[in-house]
């Protein structure tokens, strides 16, 4: 979900830039270190960035001054964490603002924070918790992608509410924005969760090495053998 050009007061635009820039800088450091230590991961990072670009470009008109869309950050969050995801989101958001009139330069900091930092952070926390208790690939991937999307929309609603409180009451404004966004964003979050489950399931079959240490993948051969014995 993007806030469009010119829809944030200057003070709020600067505030969100100030919060986002340190994380993005940290992300560039992490990418440089990753590529130096594991150059073979360049393809994985590029693929994660492609998901963000393609899915976040599928925008639907929403409440004035914003748009609804998948975020595509779930894969990058699982594979590379929040910092690197913030860099990929930043690159995508700049490209979309300059060439697709999607989002904006003045609202770039706010959009980076919601889509590239806050959403992935919530998704990453869920991912780490579910992975720790060995929930398995399907629920872990679905919940991570779903929450990364949903948290983005919640933070965007908060950003707009803080900038445009109703009669001085930001909470009233937040509830209004939250309710309007829910109509489009919750179904999009579900669809995105299902899409990434399908992608990671394919990846687990075709390139399990890319998910080593990232997700709990059940031994499919053992499952088939076990089912045959039981049968």
Describe this entry's structure for a reader:
By secondary structure, this protein is mainly α. Helices cover 73% and strands 3% of the residues. It has helices spanning 10-37, 42-56, 74-99, 108-132, 137-163, 170-206, 220-230; strands at 2-3, 60-61, 66-68. It has a three-stranded antiparallel β-sheet with strand order 1-3-2. A hairpin with a 4-residue loop joins strand 2 and strand 3 (66-68). Helix 3 runs antiparallel to helix 4 (108-132) and helix 3 (74-99) crosses helix 5. The radius of gyration is 19 Å and the shape is globular. The model is unreliable at 219-231 (pLDDT under 50).
Summarize the structure.
With 231 residues, the protein is mainly alpha-helical. It has helices at 10-37, 42-56, 74-99, 108-132, 137-163, 170-206, 220-230, and strands at residues 2-3, 60-61, 66-68.
Strand order of the largest sheet: 1-3-2
Number of helices: 7
> Spans with pLDDT under 50 lasting ≥5 residues?
219-231
Termini gap: 49 Å
Q: Bin the helical content.
A: over 70%
Rounded Rg? 19 Å
Number of strands: 3
Envelope shape: globular
Largest sheet: 3 strands, antiparallel
- Average pLDDT figure: 86
The portion of residues forming beta strands comes to: under 5%
Helix-strand category: mainly alpha
- N to C succession of SSEs: EHHEEHHHHH
């Amino acid at each position: 979900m993007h806030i469009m050009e010119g829809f944030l007061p200057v003070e709020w635009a600067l505030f969100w830039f100030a919060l986002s820039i340190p994380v993005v800088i940290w992300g560039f450091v992490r990418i440089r270190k990753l590529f130096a230590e594991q150059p073979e991961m360049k393809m994985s990072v590029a693929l994660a960035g492609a998901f963000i670009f393609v899915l976040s470009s599928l925008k639907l008109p929403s409440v004035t001054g914003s748009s609804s869309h998948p975020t595509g950050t779930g894969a990058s969050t699982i594979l590379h964490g929040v910092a690197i995801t913030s860099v990929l989101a930043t690159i995508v958001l700049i490209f979309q603002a300059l060439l697709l009139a999607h989002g904006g330069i003045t609202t770039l900091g706010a959009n980076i924070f919601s889509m590239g930092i806050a959403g992935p952070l919530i998704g990453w926390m869920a991912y780490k918790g579910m992975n720790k208790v060995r929930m398995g690939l399907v629920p872990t991937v679905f919940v991570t992608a779903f929450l990364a999307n949903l948290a983005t929309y919640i933070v965007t609603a908060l950003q707009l509410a803080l900038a445009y409180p109703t009669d001085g009451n930001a909470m009233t404004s937040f509830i209004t924005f939250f309710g309007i966004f829910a109509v489009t964003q919750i179904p999009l979050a579900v669809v995105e969760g299902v899409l990434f489950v399908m992608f990671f399931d394919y990846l687990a079959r075709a390139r399990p090495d890319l998910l080593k240490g990232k997700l709990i993948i059940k031994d499919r051969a053992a499952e088939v053998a076990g089912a045959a014995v039981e049968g």
